[in-house]
Amino acid sequence: MNAIPPEIRAAAPVVTPDAPAKPFLDRLFADGVLMPTGVDGLYGRSGAFEEVIDGFERLVERFSREDGAVKIHFPPAMPRVNMEKSGYLKSFPQLAGSIHSFMGNDADHCQLIAALTEGRDWSDYQSPTDVVLTPAACYPLYPTVAAKGAVPMSGLLFDLKSYCFRHEPSKEPTRMQLFRMRENVCIGTPTQVTEFRERWLERGPKLIASLGLPCELDVANDPFFGRGGKLMARNQRDQQLKFELLIPVNDGADPTACLSFNYHQNHFGTLWGMKREDGEEAHSACVGFGLERIALALFRHHGNDVAKWPDEVRDVLFG
Question: Which domain holds residue 125?
Fold first, then answer.
């Protein structure tokens, strides 16, 4: 009989007739890796979980520094007007999150308190604010770049990070409603941004393989909403504008997209008026790392006790 590879042996739960395997999420809760809050997709993270993410981010930063990327961390909220202009609500209304707050007077406050006391819905006493929850780390970048003037002919590189929100509650631990995204973004000529994406398409699988994780690269599309969204998704696939790096993580489910590689063409250049110094619209591309998903993949394949992970994996992350 062939030996079971170490990465599979470490990930496989012990199953007996008296002790059936718990779902992955339950095992994470039981071992204190994640903490439930009562809302699917909203979890506390342990210190070990955060240390794993810190280690992975250091790996990404090595490449970012070598490339000369400018590091920017945006807050988890962005101006409402920018989301409206971005077209996100047209393409992904099912995922968007808006921040509301109480803006009433004393009488309105009394009504709000009465609703709370009686157990009624109090959301009628909340009004939209000027900010919404950030859906992707790169969304605040493009209007920021456009406001600074022409993009130099040498192009621009950025290393971004932000907490992001997408409303898709799920029992799958990889589908969190609030999660962190690390992105590297290139803005410049079509040649510059396609070469940037090709470089990361080569780097990404090697980076994940160095952590002892199985992965596969595949053409993908964003979850566009509605009938028109199906055409947009098909066009995105046909033009191979989006690739994803997939890793098996969840119980009985398809592999999870943990990295994405996206070529936006001149979409954001046109939308935000990002012009190059030669007057042409700037193109852009990004590589996105789902930090929680990568951490969960590591726990799934190497076990919930980080101290017992293979030495070669620990050396890559923490060495």
Answer: 100-132
